[in-house]
Every structure is written in structure tokens, then in C-alpha cells.
Amino acid sequence: MNAPQIIKTPSGEELVVLPRAEYDQLVRAAEEAAEDAADAAIYDARKAALAGEASLPAELSMAILREESRLKALRKWRGLTQSELAERAQVTQGFLSDLESRRRTASAETAAKLAAALDVPLVWIDG
């Protein structure tokens, strides 16, 4: 980086003269900093929104990333068979299988029963 030239105007204001390439580099750096600040603000807002909610344990997140449905991952995490969970939630095993394979979606009432049967927050079922 070359040393910038400083020019003083008759009113006393100081102006800095620098090569165009250095100016362009500073503009790019400022744009990247603004983008990073926007990303940080989004992260902070989402983190604050989740502050009151329980987050998924790591092993559940990993199961979901391996393409398991959230419901299936929760059932396995609780050490239950489909039949056991179906009985606890008062649904049929076939219906539970359809929910786990995403062939069907749970009503609000069914989701609440599943959450209670699994002893997890409802948002874990709906999310």
C-alpha cells in the first residue's frame, strides 16, 4: 500500500488521495464488513427468537441430517418402537409409519399427542 497523499483545503478540511486500486479495495472491504454485520444481525435475531425454546439435542440433529424424519429420530432417541409410540399416542402403527415416512402429516391434535407421548416440546414435532 502506497502512502496516501493528504491535501488540505483552504477551509482546513483534509482530503486523502490514494491510488484507485487501493480505493476499490477499501470499498470492497467495507461492503464485506456490511454484509458480515447483516449476517451477524440475522444470527442474533434468530438466536434471540429461539432463546425461550428448547433446542434439539445434537444426536437428534445428526439423525435428521442423515435424512431421518424428525418424528422417527425422536422415537428412536426415546428408545421406542413404532408400536409402543403408537399405543402411547393413541394412533395406529400404520399411521405412525406414514407420519415417519412423510406420506402423511399430523393434525395439531395428533402432533400434541405425539409430543406428550415422547415427552418433548410440541415445536419439536411441528418443526
Notable features of this structure?
127 residues, mainly alpha, 7 helices
Residues in β-strands, percent: 5-15%
Q: What class, by secondary structure content?
A: mainly alpha
CA radius of gyration is 28 Å
What is the top-level CATH class of the largest domain?
Mainly Alpha
- First-to-last CA distance: 51 Å
H-E string:
EEHHHHHHH
CATH architecture of the largest domain: Orthogonal Bundle
Predict the CATH topology of the largest domain: 434 Repressor (Amino-terminal Domain)
Indicate the overall shape: rod-shaped
Give a written overview of the molecule.
There is one protein chain. This protein is mainly α and 127 residues long. The protein has 2 domains: 46 residues; 69 residues, 434 Repressor (Amino-terminal Domain) (Orthogonal Bundle). The protein contains 7 helices and 2 strands. Strands 1-2 form a two-stranded antiparallel ribbon. The longest helix has 31 residues. It starts with a strand and ends with a helix.
